[in-house]
Model the fold of this input.
Amino acid sequence: MAFLKKLLPGTPALGLATLAFLGLAAYEGLAWSRFERDNRALAEPGRITLTDDTDRELVFAAARAQAARGNEQEALRLYNTVLREGTPEFRERVHYNIANLYLREAAPLWNAVGVLEYARVDTLVALAKESYRAALRLNPDAWDARYNLEYAHRITPPPKERAKSDFQGSKSSVFATMPSLPGGGP
Amino acid sequence: MSSSGHDSLLADWRPRALALESSIKQCLIGMDGPIRHITLAIFARGHVMLEGDVGVGKTTLLRAVARGIGGAYERIEGTIDLMPNDLVYHTYINEDGKPQVDPGPILKHGPELSVFFFNEVNRARPQVHSLLLRVMAERSVTAFNREHFFPHLQVFADRNRVEKEETFEIPSAARDRFLMELHIEAPEDQAERLELMFNPRFHDVDKLLESIVPGVLPYREIAGLAPIIQESVRASDALQQYALALWEATRKPAAYDVAIGNLDMDQLILAGASARGVSMMMRAARVAAWLDGRDYLVPEDIRGVFRETTAHRVFFHPVYELRRSELIGELMTGILNNVPAP
Amino acid sequence: MALMRSIALMLCLAAGALRAETAAPHLELQASRDFGYTLGSLIEHHLRLWLPDGAELVTPLLPSPGAVNDWLDLRTLRWEQESAHVVRIDVTYQVFKGIRDPETAVIPPLAIAYRVGGTNAEIHTPEWSFGLIPLIPPATPDDKVMLRGDAHERQFPAQSAFYRFVAFLSAAALGVLALASRFGLIPGLGRRRPFADACRRIARLRSASPGVRLDAGLRAVHEALAKTHGKPVFPAMLDAFFEARPVFAPLRAEFEAFFDASQRHFFEPGAEETDVSVHCQALEGFCRRCARLERSA
Done:
């Protein structure tokens, strides 16, 4: 017992330590309550109201909810507000989701219309690829990003001509066939 | 008288006082405490109230004291029809068939009266109490158109605590005039009890008291000695602080963490010890210091007389007054236990 | 033994001959493997460059991270002077080549600049070809490929924050408890040491004048006694005190002496305080002995 007592710090040190622990406890308690609140908000991302100091994870969730609702423009806008913030892991996810937005718009177009929508597909795919690369630079092990990027490469014009091509017939504009020219991309 | 004269006077008197104490102790068993307190009272020139059961030796004690002090001794029994006049004079038809007025017990011995014992004082009427008050306070009484003084008078009163019927509680002003209130109880010690029961020496009180040398103390000189004792015994600052704290504690026990059960101490006390009370306490304490051979007070002197000089001066709220006998002891013990010195 | 020494000698000679031969700069490339890479893979090249005497690497001219060509990124390049003549260079590439079928890709030569005798020269890494395989099975038509889904949001670590909160709160509570017991606010927890406290108080008084010190010291010991006994202790109560606290019985004589001294100091007016400092020392010793007994209780 006496030995134990000797190990205990002096009264001033004990007081300081107690104060420090109190402070840490207050900090963690606040963090905990905030996390709880934010987790409840995450459970219903459609209802998130965004203000200037909304946590970026909530913005991310809100963007995803917008995308799920088909409101890609708003989703992109939200993703872009948090694109340059936070941890590499977070930025990787944002880049990846942005890339997915572009690619998911490009893929059906490509598969349905093929080279006829060359300009749009080209632009969208180029944007998607850029974002996938950004994601992969942040995390080379992002296998989803690798896979989707490979797909983006597959549908990159000029592709292998599709078997049934009416390239000449329904071309809407001569400019649209030229790579890297604005052709109605986003 | 010079101070060295005082010193030798005090030194002369101390053995006498101790001799009185020890000779009384020989006659009374198991009463060392009360005997010591009565000795203190004698030299503090204070009156004493005795309280106790019937037949515990109160009267024997007082007779022994009276014999030891010497001087005239008078005694009167309190009864409900006792009137103040009965103390001062009594009238009768003398042998010539004429009415005659003779001085009563108080006046009979004139200024030589040294011990006046009022037995069963609570049976007497308040009118008698007030006369007694005056006798005790001023050591004088007005009778036959003049004042009579009793410079050596010491009053002992005795209160029967068994019976409450046909009794008159002594007013607090009168109680306050008693230096001490002593509780006399039969000895607790078994050997002493056996001694009392079987030793024939204690069965014949008159013969027993004869063993006391009469007039061990020249009673006439006590009145002169008492102030010298009071002057010669000194009190240090620390002791004064202690005495003050004791007094304060009788007024506000809660301030000294004195607690009795779960009583609200602020509700309990109606009035703490009076200023006269504490000055009497200090008088007795100084005598104790002198008897102990010191010329300065120590806390033990005060502690030794605190209960006896103070308990009867603390007044409870009426609600608690009925439980006085059980509460006052705890209060006094609590105060003594909780007031630190120094 | 003699044989081994001769072999070692021969090895040394061989090494010396090698050095003499490689007076011209010379570069060696090491890679863990050259197959099984996919899009996004990192490729690490470890280069060792032997430079002749007087030659040194021109570090500002080393290739900087960035795109090498449209499908290859140079991610990092670190170099380290391994010895006077050898520089070690670690290069990491990232492949972004989209393919439909397995193919062999080639990393183009990398120019490493060095300076010898005031002129810059370059040495090139060899071309390095490696096997690249697709992630999407080769025969799958484009419209049959299922894209990978979006990344999900992460839950906030509420639980771990809660655990930390509880942990810190309990630590703080323990601290408060320890403090409270130290100040004697919790009856029964943490035994109080009145005599030890008194000793500390007396020790603190060392700078005071002897008279003040004796006065305060005696009071401190009286207080300690009262705290130990639960009520003030007077000389007449010593028997009861020793009965209740037999630990202190061995010091009976000292207790009596203490009460004598205290009585003299506080109550005997004009008592000559002879050699107060000696009294002070005695008091301090007495208090220390009491504290020791108190600890053993």
